[in-house]
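Tokens in:
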């Protein structure tokens, strides 16, 4: 296998998940909507804020990779949801599905 083929193969494995960690969908499966605003174990962010942070960061990396003129959100303020919980279930479902 050529180096580029190996790289493509490994990237596909990482993007599809199922290697060393659970995919985001599996990790979020079954979390009740009512607990999304809670901060587990005294952490500084709620479950919702952590999940939305992942969404924002992945979007930023994807856009940066697609467009050379992409402007990233301001770090760290624009990488975290301001509210500790989603505004409604449809906002949560947009991320968790």
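Residues out:
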């Amino acid at each position: 296998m050529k180096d580029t083929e190996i790289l493509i193969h490994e990237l596909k494995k990482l993007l599809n998940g199922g290697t060393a960690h659970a995919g985001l969908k599996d990790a979020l499966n079954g979390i009740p909507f009512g607990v999304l605003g809670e901060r587990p174990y005294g952490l500084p962010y709620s479950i919702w804020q952590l999940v939305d942070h992942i969404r924002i960061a992945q979007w930023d990396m994807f856009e940066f990779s697609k467009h050379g003129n992409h402007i990233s959100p301001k770090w760290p303020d624009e990488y975290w949801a301001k509210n500790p919980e989603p505004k409604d279930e449809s906002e949560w479902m947009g991320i968790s599905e």
